[in-house]
């Protein structure tokens, strides 16, 4: 049969060969015709390399087919050692030759995909800088592993009565346990290494839609001044409850909004808020309202159940939470923990209500609070103690009493 061979310089050669001729013999014929050494030839048929040991019939070459001859990218025996060598930092001396050498070896590529798929993908790519960086990283990893093995071997042969050696052995055993624990976590509990998205639900406060941060660790429900203004609630701010909350961070308490409607699902519920001068936090649904409205945080079904289960609203997925809210949880936590720290040693400085600067009026105001709390069913001693713990804040004292 006759085949046509086109060289890289567009020379056309027609050869009469047997169907069962080997590719190596075909290259020998081409060496005579083109003066190109057999070792420097690379023959391509249908875009695939023709290997020396293969027969033309097995490859599918038929009469009249076209074969391409291009310069071989496989380094010669004289230059292979240099081109395929490595620098002291682990990078390839000739990254292009190294990449092509790996690509041309099907067995090596298959092994690389099994043992190091990341490196295999980079070898098949076109970014030689990325290939060099990855080779350096692999070299550092191997060097570090060898160093650790040498240290472990040295410790095994260390003097058993050497105190320093025993300390190193103990540290090595401890680190090995940590590494095994880390590996087990990666295998059995990989989600522990992912970022935990805080719990948000859609609510309406006084008719204004909001993303509410649900936090059962916060003592009180909190709304920022800007959010309260946007919801039209700032006109209801009772500044008699203003003060400074100190704890994890410090925030100014501007006052309290005693009651406003919030909509969860299709139902409306009364809610009270502490108003903080906290621009980084918008609205936090705290334990006081969670308890009041018998809420349940159902992480199995990923919903917040309200009213003992009469309403269930789903927690928002990360894609539904505005990006600025992802950091808001941290600031909200600081604000809420400031107030939550008050009964455990932190202090809150309450300003005197308007028109009540004298000592007698303060005493009367304190007694009025005691009377109102006693009417809720608590004894006087517990009420007085709760008011002292809350620095005279009636709502916080009530929270202590109901919570206790």
Automatic annotation (TrEMBL):
A Pfam family recorded for this sequence: ubiquitin
Residues covered by the Peptidase A2 domain: 210-289
Residue intervals of the UBA domain: 363-404
Keywords annotated in UniProt: Aspartyl protease, Cytoplasm, Hydrolase, Protease
Gene Ontology biological-process entries: proteolysis
Domain of life of the source: Eukaryota
InterPro entries: DDI1_N, Peptidase_A2_cat, Peptidase_aspartic_DDI1-type, Peptidase_aspartic_dom_sf, UBA, UBA-like_sf, Ubiquitin-like_dom, Ubiquitin-like_domsf
Compositionally biased intervals (Polar residues): 335-354
MF-aspect GO terms: aspartic-type endopeptidase activity; polyubiquitin modification-dependent protein binding
Ubiquitin-like domain ranges (all copies): 1-70
Positions of the UniProt region annotated as Disordered: 335-365
Cellular component GO terms held in the UniProt record: cytoplasm
Location relative to the cell: Cytoplasm
Record-stated family: Belongs to the DDI1 family.
Protein name: OLC1v1022392C4
Annotated source species: Oldenlandia corymbosa var. corymbosa
């Amino acid at each position: 049969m006759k085949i046509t061979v086109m060289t890289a310089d567009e020379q056309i050669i027609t050869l009469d060969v047997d169907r069962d001729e080997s590719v190596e013999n075909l290259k020998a014929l081409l060496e005579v015709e083109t003066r190109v050494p057999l070792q420097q030839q690379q023959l391509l048929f249908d875009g695939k390399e023709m290997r020396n040991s293969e027969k033309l019939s097995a490859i599918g070459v038929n009469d009249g087919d076209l074969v391409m001859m291009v310069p071989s990218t496989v380094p010669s025996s004289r230059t292979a050692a240099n081109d395929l060598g490595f620098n002291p930092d682990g990078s390839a001396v000739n990254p292009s030759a190294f990449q092509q050498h790996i690509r041309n070896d099907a067995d090596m590529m298959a092994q690389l995909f099994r043992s190091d798929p990341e490196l295999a993908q980079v070898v098949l790519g076109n970014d030689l800088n990325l290939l060099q960086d990855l080779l350096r990283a692999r070299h550092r990893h191997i060097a570090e592993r060898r160093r650790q093995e040498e240290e472990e071997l040295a410790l095994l042969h260390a003097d058993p009565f050497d105190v320093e050696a025993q300390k190193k052995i103990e540290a090595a055993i401890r680190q090995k346990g940590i590494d095994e624990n880390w590996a087990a976590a990666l295998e059995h509990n990989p989600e522990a290494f992912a970022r935990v998205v805080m719990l948000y639900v859609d609510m309406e406060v006084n008719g204004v839609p909001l993303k509410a941060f649900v936090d059962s660790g916060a003592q009180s429900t909190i709304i920022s001044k800007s959010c309260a203004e946007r919801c039209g609630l700032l006109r209801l701010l009772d500044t008699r409850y203003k003060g400074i909350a100190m704890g994890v961070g410090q925030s100014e308490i501007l006052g309290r909004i005693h009651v406003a409607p919030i909509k969860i699902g299709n139902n409306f519920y009364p809610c009270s808020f502490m108003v903080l001068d906290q621009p980084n936090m918008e609205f936090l649904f705290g334990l006081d309202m969670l308890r009041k409205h018998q809420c349940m945080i159902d992480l199995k079904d990923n919903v917040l159940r309200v009213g003992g289960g009469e309403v269930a609203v789903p927690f928002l997925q990360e894609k539904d939470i505005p990006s600025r809210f992802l950091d808001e949880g941290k600031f909200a936590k600081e604000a809420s923990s400031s107030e939550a720290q008050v009964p455990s040693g932190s202090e809150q400085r309450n300003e005197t209500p308007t028109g009540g600067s004298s000592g007698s009026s303060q005493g009367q105001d304190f007694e009025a609070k005691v009377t109102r709390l006693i009417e809720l069913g608590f004894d006087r001693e517990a009420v007085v103690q709760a008011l002292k713990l809350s620095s005279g804040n009636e709502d916080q004292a009530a929270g202590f009493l109901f919570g206790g």
